[in-house]
Design brief:
heterotetramer, A mainly alpha (about 280), B alpha+beta (about 475), C mainly alpha (about 300), D alpha+beta (about 350), A: about 280 residues, mainly alpha, MetI-like fold, 2 domains, globular, D: about 350 residues, alpha+beta, six-stranded mixed β-sheet, five-stranded antiparallel β-sheet, 20 strands, elongated
Chain lengths: ~280, ~475, ~300, ~350
């Protein structure tokens, strides 16, 4: 009797879990479905739930017309800025942790920089970038994303570095390494998974950014979110392109949740929960 | 797939031929405005012009057709930069405020021209127009566009380049149907024909819905606030309304005319398809092509596409297949004074580092011969705007009743009403859009319009009453600001 | 005593090394973080508008305007209501989900992974997706409602004042409930098993166990999650921008959308700087108050 | 091989004076153990020698050069840490080779050294494994291996055994001692465990509050503690202390509960002034006898048999006393025993200053 009871409850839970999962995945399914639909299917009433063919035409069009380039722009700016932010952020975090540089205040000040809404600073940043002549360049967006993500990287890496036993570093110092070498040969390998997880999130933030890219790009470095919003034009809503380009933007994220689950909770909670 | 690719190849071949043809015609006619522009531009060979265009279909013209041709003729490269329509103003001003010289040639919406000109973002063009002898050809642009989308306070800031006007389209199969005709005449005592007044429009719409719904509804119109405000502006003035008092500059939008138009707009929704309140551009357009509505009012491309012009063009594959290709009727909307909704002029950015070349490109694009080809591009969104476009035999033979189409556009180009254009028009329009969404939310028309008038007065006060009054009267005194 | 002189040796001394490490990051943050902030304050005392470019000191004229700007206060009100509604919904849904997944479920990781997806995608994509979902004619939402209603429905999600906020809210809640869910799931999993068992033996009710053991244990984490999300909600831009651009009218205008509008549509640059400063001020007050509370509760 | 000379070293942490004017000379090859309760400054001192802390004042000299201002890597010392500080991402082989690689040794040299160390420490079988795959004791050996391959001038051990369980600790202790003998190098070893200190050290440095309480050979300290602190620190169970009154010209004393013991015939008899003293007796110096003369009468309160011996606790007045008895000396709590005291092996301390009374 009790056995049966437990079994029933398990199935009830699984059922609930499936309903919930359906709710969260369906919109993305719908987006994907649109990206494979023909124009007739997209503008059919009642809506077509499953496209008749697995049709890559909408993607083909994006690539043929060079509009998929916006994905490349997103990739270049997000990945290079991630490298910079990770490098400068990690060494800064090391300094904060090991040498208590600037005491507690410097750390608080740095993380508070992340709190400022982009909309508040984007105009002055725009003027600054005009002065430097880096509007609509990779350099511009990379500099911006690096700066914008630095506080996050420092904050997160601070947490990860704090977890590295001090004795490891001291042992290496005694064994004959310089401080710089200790950082590279001991701290970095020890913080490897933290570095990786933080880098992925840094990448995501830059990849998903809209407002900065909207203001600071013109034509050469338009990123995919900016491009997607552009498709909701006045005279033709290019739903097929919205669907296909958005899906291209979602794909890396599917990979992220597929492979990085155990790091995600710490990444999004800014270190509040250690996964 | 294979058929599509064949079609595409054919299209590519066709456009190659088109380029070839245009080259020969250019050589044949000596010293036209286009030729002068090309001749003068050759000294800038090797430079690049950044041209700001509305994203979507618009840029296909400079990207696929005129851009390459211009480069071939002058050696000047055309770099098309796209921005969604609501970003055009932002991007233009942003570049101006920053002094970055990001753009050379601009697409300017007429009602934004005063702001851009007074903010100093646009280059005055008179000197270039004279230098390159373009005044004469500029005069040949259809009157309303010429007189109203070119100058701010007497100075030329733009070359009007788009014959945007809201024309009425009706399904002739329904209007010619004997049963409908007889039934309508029996009920209302006059013939079933394209309506001349809004009263007739309502009666016809109601009658057709009553007899044919849910298969066919009498009409479907723009109802999204952004587009519906164009329809309101038109109907308000047709009903005799004035936006402001010319002396006190007080808003008079809440006059009797305003209230009755607002009430009429709500009433009309009743015979339109369910959900019409949300209709933007696509919905009435696709419903009309599908034969689901008997009448609609929209921009000129709808008239072409409904007739099947440009069918099979890849760029237009998002357009639903027309089921009424040979049944499209064209007429001026009720009142006979269509709204010249939006449209584009070419302007030259004041911050451009290559203003002369930018102007020359604009002149070339805008010239008789080049513009004639551009307005005929199947995927073009540029609508006929020159007297010569309307009478062009080639264009008039594009489909069975293309002549009717061009005649109506021509008539519209004479009687069309200008969009309200003030300093910071957008703020006034914003308030108007807000009022319309309240209208759809079933609020009381009078109350909404009183609020709207209050908001407008406040805006006027902030911007400066005298300054705004000058701009308004400048606009209001144009021949097509109000119906004659 | 041996003294070291070379640069490399100096660098290797603690006091130089630590500054050497932190200097680039601080420099970049100062440049892109602090400079714009200072510039912002500067501009807010000048008078730069679409037509004017007055760089002299103008006093507090733009700050005075703030008080007289109904649209601004409406947008702030929208933002506050939006935050105040979305945040508890996300919290409660996230918590319920976490409770569900706290129990044994086969292939739990797969479920959790799929549920997480919305949180990591671009808010622009989320907005676009829901815009398509909510389309009154070609979107599936009205269709699904029609199934339940038994007749055709034409709910105007993008225009009807009563529906447009709920539509945005659904998109926002859809995207961020998984965030709360994941954090609370982790927090709940970390609740001390022995304490729970002890409570069970002591005969505590479910409610008492929750209030006296579970809640205090997850409180710090929950608080941070609420803070992070609260700040995000307060500056929400992308989703609203994609779905309504603040429309119809200014009905869904949030503070960020309004600030954008004033800066990049009206080019009322100085005034928008004053707005930006106001936003930063409000956020600072919220964060400081929140952190105080957190410290007190510790 | 150089001597280590610690010369008037001071260390401040802000206002805290952690090491006070400390001087120690360590001849080459000696095994010195720094011992003391936590916070006594022993670790600070060790880390100062390693260069992980900067000293505030004084000097540290290794051979003929001052190393006080050198970076750790320039001091040519090796150190074994409490947590072993093995690099989890490196194999055992690479862990041992780490210091050699840092010093740019050739691959051949490294291999030679690692093989030598692994054979010495009997870890040759798991050179390819990673630290997480090793037991605590094995990790400890690797940590030691990493230190000894370097041919350092000085070996520092920072509580290396404290993370091991009791059994392993005994074994490793022995091995470390053997290693010292084999290598013949100078070892400075920090522990808080007096047994380690006793068993390993050539010389113990007993620290308290940054000051040396006593320095000397283990048995010296054990048998001739300079003060109550030293006496109490060394030995397990700890020395029993009680307040006594010496009377009759140093020939008799009164225990806290009034019992009288005669000092006659002992070394101290007559050599100590009458008065109040703190008397220290180790538990093994109390033994059960059948006669009752000049014995301590004890009512056993708690019995703790360990197998070979049995600890019997009793009270003299308020003083809690532990005696170490034969396994079967007592059968149950409450029994009354007579205990003989080996008075010659007990210590008298000045109750005011705590210093030992030299007899």
């Amino acid at each position: 009797m009790k056995q049966w009871d437990q079994g029933a409850r398990l199935w009830a839970r699984v059922f609930c879990a499936m309903i919930v999962t359906l709710f969260f995945v369906f919109p993305i399914y719908w987006l994907g479905a649109i990206s494979f639909k023909t124009a007739e299917e997209i503008f059919a009433y009642p809506p077509v739930w499953i496209p008749a063919n697995f049709n890559f035409h909408n993607y083909f069009v994006l690539f043929r017309d060079g509009e998929a380039w916006s994905i490349w722009n997103s990739f270049v700016t997000a990945s290079i800025s991630t490298l910079f932010a990770m490098f400068f952020g990690t060494i800064a975090a090391y300094s904060l942790v090991r040498y208590k540089t600037g005491g507690n205040h410097l750390g608080i000040w740095i993380i508070s920089q992340r709190m400022i809404p982009p909309i508040c600073v984007v105009f002055p940043v725009f003027l600054l970038f005009v002065a430097w002549d880096i509007v609509d360049t990779y350099t511009g967006l990379i500099v911006l994303y690096t700066a914008f993500n630095l506080p996050y990287v420092i904050w997160m890496m601070r947490g990860y570095i704090q977890e590295i036993p001090l004795e490891l570093e001291q042992s290496a110092l005694v064994d004959g390494l310089t401080r710089w070498a200790v950082l590279w040969k001991v701290v970095m390998p020890m913080a490897k998974s933290g570095l990786f997880a933080t880098a992925v999130f840094t990448f995501i933030f830059a990849w998903n950014d809209f407002l900065f890219a909207l203001i600071l790009s013109r034509s050469d470095v338009v990123t995919f979110p900016v491009k997607v919003t552009g498709y909701f034009g006045a005279q033709s809503s290019l739903w097929s392109k919205v669907g296909a380009l958005s899906m291209l933007g979602v794909l890396p994220m599917i990979f992220v949740v597929g492979t990085m689950q155990r790091f995600i909770v710490r990444g999004i909670s800014m270190g509040a929960v250690k996964g | 797939m294979s058929i599509q690719s064949i079609v595409r190849k054919l299209l590519i071949a066709a456009s190659t031929i088109a380029v070839g043809l245009s080259l020969t015609t250019l050589e044949a006619s000596a010293q036209s405005a286009a030729d002068r522009a090309v001749e003068a531009a050759k000294k800038y060979s090797g430079t690049t012009l950044n041209v700001l265009y509305e994203a979507g279909l618009q840029p296909l013209d400079p990207k696929n057709f005129t851009g390459p041709l211009w480069e071939k003729l002058t050696g000047i490269k055309i770099n098309v930069i796209e921005a969604p329509i609501d970003q055009l103003f932002t991007k233009t001003m942003q570049a101006h405020k920053a002094g970055s010289g990001s753009y050379d040639v601009l697409n300017v919406l007429p009602n934004q021209m005063p702001d851009l000109a007074l903010a100093g973002a646009l280059e005055p063009l008179d000197k270039f127009v004279d230098k390159y002898g373009y005044r004469e050809e500029l005069q040949k642009i259809a009157p309303v566009y010429r007189d109203n989308q070119m100058k701010v306070e007497g100075v030329i800031y733009g070359l009007p380049d788009d014959g945007d006007v809201l024309i009425m389209y009706y399904n002739r199969a329904i209007f010619d149907d004997a049963k409908n005709k007889a039934g309508f005449k029996a009920k209302h005592g006059y013939d079933l024909a394209p309506p001349k007044t809004w009263k007739e429009f309502s009666e016809i719409g109601q009658y057709l819905t009553d007899t044919l719904a849910p298969k066919v509804y009498g009409a479907g119109l723009f109802r999204q606030p952004g587009l519906a405000q164009f329809m309101f502006q038109e109907r308000f003035r047709v009903a005799g309304g004035k936006f402001f008092d010319a002396d006190t500059m007080k808003a008079t939008i809440n006059s009797e005319a305003g209230i009755s138009v607002f009430k009429g707009m709500v009433e009309d929704n009743k015979y339109m398809p369910p959900g019409v309140e949300q209709w933007g551009f696509i919905e009435p357009f696709s419903a009309f092509l599908a034969g689901d509505i008997a009448m609609t009012i929209s921009w000129p491309p709808v008239g072409r596409w409904a007739a099947g012009y440009g069918k099979g063009t890849e760029a237009l594959n998002w357009i639903p297949e027309t089921k009424i290709a040979d049944k499209v009727g064209y007429a001026l909307p009720p009142g006979g004074t269509p709204e010249l909704a939006a449209g584009f002029s070419f302007g030259v950015a004041s911050g451009s580092k290559n203003k002369e070349a930018a102007y020359l490109f604009s002149q070339w694009m805008n010239s008789e011969e080049i513009s004639l080809k551009r307005v005929q591009l199947p995927y073009a969104l540029r609508d006929p705007f020159r007297t010569s476009h309307f009478s062009n035999p080639e264009y008039r033979s594009r489909w069975s009743n293309a002549g009717d189409y061009l005649d109506v556009l021509k008539a519209g180009a004479e009687t069309g009403l200008l969009d309200l254009s003030l300093l910071q028009t957008d703020r006034y329009e914003e308030a108007m859009r807000q009022a319309i969404s309240r209208l759809w939310a079933q609020e009381d028309p009078k109350e909404i319009l009183d609020d709207l008038a209050g908001q407008w007065d406040k805006l006027t006060k902030r911007i400066g009453l005298e300054k705004q009054k000058r701009v308004y009267n400048d606009w209001a005194n144009k021949p097509n600001a109000y119906p004659k | 005593m041996i003294t070291s002189n070379s640069f490399a040796d100096k660098l290797d001394q603690e006091r130089w090394f630590k500054y050497f490490l932190i200097a680039p990051a601080v420099f970049i943050i100062l440049l892109i973080g602090l400079y714009p902030f200072v510039k912002l304050i500067l501009v807010s005392f000048q008078n730069i508008t679409m037509f004017d470019n007055e760089l002299s000191y103008q006093g507090f004229i733009h700050y005075e305007r703030l008080f007289d700007d109904d649209r601004l206060w409406e947008s702030i009100l929208h933002t506050i209501i939006f935050t105040a509604v979305a945040l508890p919904i996300e919290l409660i849904l996230g918590f319920l989900l976490a409770l569900l997944f706290l129990e044994r479920i086969p292939y739990k990781q797969v479920f959790v992974g799929i549920i997480l997806l919305p949180t990591v995608i671009s808010p622009i994509v989320a907005g676009a997706t829901w815009k398509l979902m909510f389309d009154q004619r070609f979107g599936p939402i009205n269709q699904v409602i029609a199934w339940f209603a038994g007749h055709e429905v034409k709910l105007l999600w993008n225009i009807e004042p009563a529906l447009v906020w709920p539509a945005i809210m659904v998109a926002e809640v859809w995207q961020w409930t998984p965030f709360m869910f994941l954090i609370l799931l982790a927090a709940l999993s970390n609740v001390d098993r022995e304490q729970l068992e002890a409570a069970q033996i002591d005969g505590a009710s479910w409610w008492m166990t929750f209030r006296k053991i579970v809640l205090p244990a997850i409180m710090p984490v929950m608080f941070i999650a609420l803070l992070i999300r609260g700040l995000d909600l307060f500056r929400v831009f992308d989703v609203v921008w994609t779905m309504t651009k603040g429309g119809p009218g200014t009905m869904t205008e949030t503070i960020s959308i309004y600030a954008y509008h004033m800066a990049f549509r009206e080019f009322d640059v100085s005034y928008s700087a004053a707005i930006a400063f106001l936003i930063i001020l409000i956020l600072t007050v919220i964060v400081v108050a929140a952190l105080r509370r957190m410290e007190v509760s510790r | 091989m150089p001597n280590l000379k610690i010369d008037n070293v001071n260390k401040f942490y802000g206002d805290v004076h952690a090491v006070k004017d400390l001087s120690i000379d360590v001849p080459a090859g000696e095994f010195v153990v720094l011992v003391g309760p936590s916070g006594c400054g022993k670790s600070t001192l060790l880390r100062s020698i390693a260069g992980l802390e900067e000293i505030s004042d004084g000097d540290i000299v290794l051979g003929d050069r001052s190393i006080a201002n050198l970076a750790p890597r320039d001091r040519n010392i090796a150190m074994v840490f409490q947590s072993y500080a093995l690099y989890p991402y490196l194999s055992v082989y690479e862990n041992i080779a780490f210091g050699l690689r840092a010093r740019k040794a050739s691959d051949d040299e490294i291999k030679k050294q690692v093989d030598w160390a692994s054979e010495l420490l009997d870890i040759g079988d798991y050179l390819k494994r990673f630290p997480r795959e090793l037991s605590g004791g094995q990790r400890q050996r690797v940590a030691i291996g990493r230190a000894i391959v370097r041919n350092a001038d000085l070996f520092l051990f920072d509580e290396p055994l404290s993370n091991l369980d009791a059994k392993l600790r005994d074994g490793m202790r022995e091995e470390i001692k053997r290693l010292h003998t084999k290598l013949g190098k100078t070892f400075v070893y920090v522990t808080h465990d007096q047994i380690e200190a006793m068993t390993l050290a050539d010389r113990i440095v007993l620290l308290r509050d940054g000051v040396i309480e006593q320095i000397g050979a283990p048995l010296d300290l054990f048998e001739r503690p300079k003060n109550i602190f030293v006496a109490g620190f060394l030995g397990s169970p700890p020395m029993n202390f009680m307040d006594v009154d010496v009377t009759e010209h140093g020939t008799s004393m009164a225990l806290p509960d009034g019992q009288i013991l005669s000092l006659a015939g002992t070394k101290i008899s007559g050599k100590i002034k009458d008065g109040a003293y703190t008397w220290g007796v180790r538990s093994e110096h109390l033994s059960k006898i059948t006669e009752t003369k000049n014995t301590v009468r004890a009512v056993i309160d708690v019995l703790q048999p360990t197998g070979s011996r049995t600890y019997g606790t009793f009270f003299l007045g308020d003083c809690h006393v532990v005696s170490e008895l034969e396994a079967h000396d007592v059968s149950k709590e409450g029994e009354i025993l007579h205990l003989a005291v080996a008075i010659d092996r007990t210590s008298f301390f000045d109750p005011e200053t705590g210093s030992a009374i030299n007899s």
